[in-house]
C-alpha cells in the first residue's frame, strides 16, 4: 500500500496526474498548460484511435469559444445541406415596365463589396441590379421586388449603389407565386459549391459568411432567424451526432459574442465526429494548418517550428479569449485537442503571449508521422483575414 501511495505522489509531482496510463506526456506540456498567460484554461487531449482521454483540465465548464464556434456553425450547415449544393440568384423582367423580380435561394456567398468580389470571386449582387437598368436605357427608375435574398444583402446592395436612389425595393409576400410574375430572365449569378464556402469560413475565419451559413441552416431547418433560433439550430444538429451539448449556448454563428458558451468536452466530442462522419469531411479537410495556411500560416513558425504542418485546427480570438481546437500528429498517434482560454486579459500583448503558450504546449507533443501515414496537405494562402 505504501509503494502505491509513493508511486501516486511521484506521478503527481511530475504534473501528469490527469494523463492516461498508456501515454506519458512530457513535463514541458504541463508547464505550458499552467502558463500564467493562459490563466487555467479548459483543455482536452484525446487519442483519436480509441477516444481515450489523455489529459483534461476543467473540461466540462462552459467557456467562451471565440471563433472555435465556427466548427459548430459549419457542421450545422453541412448536416443540413449537401456540401455540393450551389445557389443561384437571378433577375427577371415582368409584364410591368420598370418592375423586376430578384429571385434567389439565400446564397451565403453573395456580396456587395467590390473588395470581396475581386479578391475572393464572390457573387456580386449590384451586378444584377445594374443589369435591370441596362435592359432598357430609357429607365430612370425601377422597382425591384425580391424573394430568396436576405434583407441585409439588400441593404448592402443599396449602400454599394450609392446614388442609385432610383431603385425601390419591395419584398415578395410568402403567399405570392413568383412564377406568375416573371417573364424573361435577364441575368443571373451562381455560387460555388457549399463546400467551398465552408473552406473559406474555416480557413480565413470569415465572420459574416459563418453567420450567413448558420442562418441558412436555421432557415432550412424551420427555426427563427434570431439568436435563439441559431442556438436551437446548432443544438439540434450537433445533438443528432450523439455529442453531449450540456451547457452549450450560442447566440451567433461567428463566435464574436462573449455570451457564447461551450465546454472543451463538447468541442472535443464534435471533433471526433468530424474525423469519421463523411458529411463533415470538408470541415477536417479545410481547417488551417500550422505554419502553412489560413489563420495558422504565421503560427508555430517561431514558437514551435517542430510542429509546422502537424497541427490542423480552428483558431479563435476575441477580447479576453484565445482558443485553438483541432488535430495534432504525434508520431504514430493522432490527437484531438481543445484549448479554451477565456481569461487571458484584453490587451494584444497578453493575447499574443497566450497564443505562444498554446503553440509551445502543442510543440511538446507533436512529432512527424511514422512511415506509411500521409501528412496533412498544405493549403495555399492568397490572402488573410482576422481570426
Describe it.
This protein is an alpha+beta fold. 33% of the residues lie in helices and 18% in strands. It has helices spanning 2-13, 27-33, 70-78, 114-120, 125-134, 151-161, 194-203, 207-221, 227-240, 264-276, 281-285, 348-363; strands spanning 42-47, 52-57, 88-94, 99-103, 142-147, 167-171, 182-190, 311-318, 321-330, 333-341. The protein has a five-stranded antiparallel beta sheet. Helix 3 crosses helix 8 (207-221), helix 3 (70-78) crosses helix 9 (227-240) and helix 7 packs across helix 8. The longest helix has 16 residues, at 348-363. The model is unreliable at 1-17 and 380-386 (pLDDT under 50).
List keywords for this structure.
2 domains, 387 residues, Beta-lactamase, disordered N terminus, 5-stranded antiparallel sheet, single chain, 5-stranded mixed sheet, alpha+beta, disordered C terminus
Would you tell me the overall average pLDDT?
Answer: 90
Q: What is the CATH architecture descriptor of the largest domain? A: 3-Layer(aba) Sandwich
Strand residue content: 15-25%
Tally the beta strands: 10
The radius of gyration computed from the alpha-carbon positions, rounded to a whole number of angstroms, is 24 Å
CATH topology of the largest domain: Beta-lactamase
Give the assembly state of these chains.
Answer: single chain
**Number of helical runs?**
12
What topology emerges from the helices and strands here?
Blueprint: H1 2-13, H2 27-33, E1 42-47, E2 52-57, H3 70-78, E3 88-94, E4 99-103, H4 114-120, H5 125-134, E5 142-147, H6 151-161, E6 167-171, E7 182-190, H7 194-203, H8 207-221, H9 227-240, H10 264-276, H11 281-285, E8 311-318, E9 321-330, E10 333-341, H12 348-363
Amino acid at each position: 500500500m505504501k509503494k502505491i501511495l509513493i508511486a501516486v505522489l511521484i506521478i503527481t509531482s511530475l504534473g501528469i496526474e490527469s494523463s492516461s496510463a498508456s501515454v506519458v506526456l512530457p513535463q514541458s506540456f504541463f508547464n505550458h498548460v499552467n502558463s500564467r498567460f493562459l490563466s487555467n484554461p479548459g483543455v482536452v487531449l484525446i487519442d483519436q484511435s480509441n477516444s481515450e482521454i489523455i489529459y483534461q483540465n476543467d473540461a466540462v465548464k462552459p467557456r467562451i469559444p471565440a471563433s472555435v464556434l465556427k466548427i459548430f456553425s459549419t457542421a450545422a450547415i453541412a448536416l443540413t445541406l449537401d456540401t455540393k449544393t450551389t445557389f443561384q440568384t437571378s433577375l427577371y423582367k415582368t409584364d410591368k415596365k420598370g418592375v423586376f423580380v430578384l429571385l434567389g435561394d439565400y446564397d451565403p456567398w453573395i456580396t456587395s463589396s467590390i473588395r470581396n468580389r475581386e479578391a475572393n470571386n464572390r457573387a456580386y449582387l449590384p451586378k444584377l441590379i445594374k443589369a435591370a437598368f441596362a435592359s432598357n436605357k430609357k429607365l430612370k427608375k425601377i422597382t425591384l421586388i425580391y424573394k430568396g435574398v436576405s434583407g441585409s444583402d439588400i441593404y448592402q446592395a443599396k449602400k454599394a449603389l450609392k446614388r442609385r436612389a432610383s431603385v425601390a425595393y419591395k419584398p415578395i409576400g410568402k403567399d405570392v407565386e413568383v412564377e406568375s410574375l416573371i417573364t424573361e430572365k435577364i441575368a443571373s449569378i451562381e455560387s460555388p459549391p457549399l463546400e467551398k464556402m465552408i473552406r473559406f469560413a474555416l480557413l480565413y475565419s470569415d465572420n459574416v459568411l459563418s453567420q450567413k451559413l448558420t442562418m441558412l441552416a436555421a432557415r432550412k431547418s424551420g427555426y427563427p432567424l434570431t439568436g435563439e433560433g441559431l442556438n436551437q439550430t446548432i443544438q439540434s444538429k450537433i445533438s443528432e451526432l450523439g455529442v453531449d451539448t450540456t451547457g452549450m449556448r450560442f447566440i451567433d454563428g461567428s463566435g464574436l459574442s462573449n455570451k457564447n458558451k461551450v465546454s472543451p468536452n463538447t468541442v472535443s466530442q464534435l471533433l471526433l465526429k468530424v474525423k469519421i462522419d463523411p458529411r463533415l469531411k470538408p470541415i477536417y479537410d479545410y481547417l488551417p494548418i500550422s505554419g502553412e495556411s489560413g489563420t495558422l500560416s504565421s503560427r508555430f513558425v517561431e514558437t514551435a517550428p517542430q510542429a509546422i504542418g502537424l497541427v490542423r485546427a480552428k483558431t479563435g480570438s476575441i477580447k479576453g479569449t484565445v482558443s485553438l481546437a483541432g488535430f495534432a500528429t504525434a508520431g504514430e498517434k493522432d490527437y484531438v485537442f481543445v484549448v479554451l482560454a477565456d481569461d487571458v486579459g484584453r490587451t494584444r500583448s497578453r493575447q499574443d503571449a497566450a497564443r505562444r503558450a498554446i503553440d509551445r504546449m502543442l510543440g511538446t507533443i507533436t512529432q512527424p508521422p511514422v512511415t506509411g501515414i500521409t501528412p496533412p496537405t498544405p493549403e495555399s494562402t492568397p490572402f488573410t483575414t482576422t481570426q
